[in-house]
Every structure is written in structure tokens, then in C-alpha cells.
## 1
Amino acid sequence: MNRPQHRMNSFDILPDAETHSEGFRANRAARQNVLVEDYVELIADLLDEGQEARQVDLTERLGVSQPTVAKMLTRLTDEGFVARKPYRGIFLTPTGRKLAEEVRNRHRIVEAFLLALGVSPENARIDAEGLEHYVGAETLAAFQTAINADLSQFMTNARNKGPL
């Protein structure tokens, strides 16, 4: 029985252990920060729209239970990202505001990149919400470079050419 020939490329070669483990370490670190970043970004969004950020708002928008939000707010307070005032809602500390801006910036770049690729606005928004936490600084810079070089026009031209 003849097996089809498979051309080896750099993706098929197992990297050395240190390089390989770095990817897993970065993924675990990002995963630990996802919830913190999601909460802080949402609180900033609510506050910046002129709304109060209340526990009930977070529960509704994140689609989680009140006890889950309460537990995370305790963590965010302990870690210095938010301050809570009785009967006044939730506020970001300067540290929380800085993190929210960093997350927002990553989100904007990832979403703009996906849109430039031709992903629908709905899917770009949804996918950016997940990807923003896992994209490193070098990749974000490459995304921004591609956007600035008019990736959107390149993709439009590529789609119009059709298959070779």
C-alpha cells in the first residue's frame, strides 16, 4: 500500500523542550488572567458609558451567578483592581484602570485584525473576546503592522482573485 508523501515543514518538527514548554507556560499564565481581565474590562466599559458598575450588572452581562461575581469581586478587591463602596457600586483603582486600558487595546487590535481578514463583525467581536487574552506583544504588533499596511484591501483583492 502506497502512502501519500507528506512534505515536512517547520510546523511538523517538534521544538526543543524549553521552547515547547514556553508556549504552555504562556498559555497557563494567560488562562489565569482571563477572568480578571474580563471583569476589569467590563467594569471599565460600564463606568465609561456613564453607568454604575454593580454586581447585578456584571452577573447579567457575564451570564454568571451572583455568588460567582461576589467571589471574583472579593478577589479583584484583594488584588487591588477595584474598590467597592456600599450602595454606590464598583470602581476601578488606578491599577485596575491601567489593566482595563491594556485589555481594551489588545481587544481593539485583535478585533480590527479579524475584521480586516473579512470576519463578520459579530464573529470578530466574539472571537476577539477570547483571543485578546492569549496574544503576545509581538503578535499584536504584527497584527497592527498588517492593519496599518491595509490588510483589509489585500484580503479584498485576494478574495476577488479567486482560486488559482
## 2
Amino acid sequence: MEPNDLSGTGQRSGVATNVIEAIVAFLIMVLGAVVIQGSWALGSGWTSDGPGAGYFPFYIGIILCISGAGIMIPALFGKNRNTEIFVDSVQLKRVLSVLLPALVYVLAVQFIGLYVASALYIALFMIILGKYSRVKSVITALAVNVLFFFMFEVWFKVPLFKGQFDLLSFLGY
């Protein structure tokens, strides 16, 4: 059984590492092409008073495209390409159990603000993934966010985003 095999069967299934490398390389090349196109529109040439606004980004885009190709070619056609499984279903489930709530948190911040969304995120994360008691989780979430509220809003006078609904408007901040 391999050290990363958590299923107990000794057989892992999933996507090969070299395929993931090729996908990431392709995305880097797409990013490079977008940078090249944007810098071309800004003016990537040399003007009468020096380099145009897109001069340096243009060459950064070219470097990104060359780097992506330098990763993709060995990943797809190299004789020493890594064909081991990149991630299996158990590992992917663990990653998604953290990633998906984080994405929901980012969306929630837009509507209910940083403080309320953070309190909910911390409490639910502790309850669901950490298996802490509800009381301990809620107290911790509230304590952390009250501390941050006083630190930013009261002491440093730096207002943080309250969201579209501003659920803390009753506090006067």
C-alpha cells in the first residue's frame, strides 16, 4: 500500500499529475495571451518619449507563454513525465470541504459584510469540520470578530466592508 493511499485498497484512481501540469501550463499560456492582447491594445511599442504603456506587460506576456509551453511540452510528450495520480477522491473531498465554504464566505461578505460573514464562517467551520461544541464555536467566533471590530473600527478608525445589507448599522459605525 502506498503512503498516500487512504482507501485501504492499495489501488488509487484519479487524474495523472502530468495531465494536471499540462492543464496549468495551458492556463498560464492563456493568461500570457490575455496580457499580450491587453498590452498590444495599450501600445506595446516604443514611442517618441520612451516605452508605451503596454511595452513591459507585452514582454511579460511573452515570457508567460514561453514558460507555459516549457511546462506543457515535457508534461505531455517527455519520456520522464509523472503519471502518478495527482489527487484521489478522498484527498479531493478534503480539499473541497475547505475550498467550497471559503467560496461561500467570499460571496457572503458581499451581502452581509465582513464581520457577520466571518463570525458565521468561523462558527460553522468549527462545528462542522472541527467537531467543536456549538457553544464554544459561537463564543470563539463572536470573540474574534468583536476583537477585530474594536481593533479596526474603534482603535485604528479603519472601517471594514459592512456589506450591502449592513447588519451592524445599529452600532453607528
## 3
Amino acid sequence: MNSLRIRGRIGATSLIVIAALALAVGLWAGSRWLGPAVPALQTAVMYPSRLVVPDFGLQRADSRALTQADLHGHWTVVFFGFTHCPDVCPVTLAAFKQVWSVLSAQGATDKVRFAFISVDPERDTPEQLARYVEFFNKDFVAATGTDDELTRLTRSLGLVYARIPDPTGGYSVDHSASAVIIDPQGRRAGLFRPPFEVGPISADLLALAGSR
């Protein structure tokens, strides 16, 4: 009887040790697969792993180049659209303008950048882009590029766009309405989905900026 009890106690202890080891291994593996820990967020959807944004070359509204290297050193919120957009783009940029005001009041604008990238390079010249984006905020980056560059970049970020002819002989552009979050290492980290609420987005960006 005693020997049976001893074996039972040894078996239970072994199971506890095995379970503890399994938990430790699981946490270690999770930290490797899920990437760096992030603070609790209100609205941002963060990816379980982060992928480096591939090299790209765009032209900013101020005629300077915008490349992958410009994504480093700060959190970047990238939104793709076009200046002739009737609703989604102006509403989004108006919300980001308010978010920027919140970040400015908290002294966090050096840790976050907003970028508006046009997927309508035929009509969105540097001058047009500059006028459009400065209407919302002069500190926002504005850029565009060739269709090859834009297609490669949007696909790498999990976004799409397409030009749709209209009855007048012109065209509009359908595009993803989400804004991509890129971390200070130039990696795709997550996204904001519409509707863009100023309070939750501001809180999330302040939390992310403080987690660097």
C-alpha cells in the first residue's frame, strides 16, 4: 500500500514538473512567434509577427525621395488614397489631423509620422499632393510613385487598389480603407480600420510611442 502511495506521489510530481516545463516552453515559443510585447490597445489590430517592409522608391510632394529607410526611428501610419477621393480620404485625413493635435499636446509628434500615399500618380502631381495634404496638416508626408512601385508596396502591406472607369470617360480609384502601422524598425506591425475614432487612435499611438 505504501509503495503504491509513493508511486502515486512521484507520478503527480512528475506531471507538475512536465506541465511547468511545457508552460515555459510555450511562453518562450510564443514570445518568438508573436514578436515584441505591445501595450494594451483600444482599436489598433496588431499582427502576431512583424515583417520588414521591402525596399521601395516613391517621390514626395517636396520632390525628395521616400524610401524604406524613412520608415525607421518612429511609428508610421500609412494611408493610401487619392486627392480626387470624394469621401473616405478627406474624412480619414481630417481624423488624423485631430489625432496629430492630441499627440502634439502630449509632446509625442517626434515619435509618430503620418504618410499619405497617392495611388493616382497620373493626376496627383507633387504640386497637387502638396496642396491637398497641407490643407490637413503640413507635417504629414505626401508621396506617390509609378504603378509598379505602388503595386509592389501595397501588396507587401496587404492592401489593394484599382482604377474604375466612369461613364464620363474619366475614372475613380477603389482602394483599401485601412491605415497600416509600421514600427520604428520599418516592419509592418498592424493597422487601424475605419471608422477612425480620434480618441482610441490617439491613445493607441501614445501607448505604442511609449513602448519603444
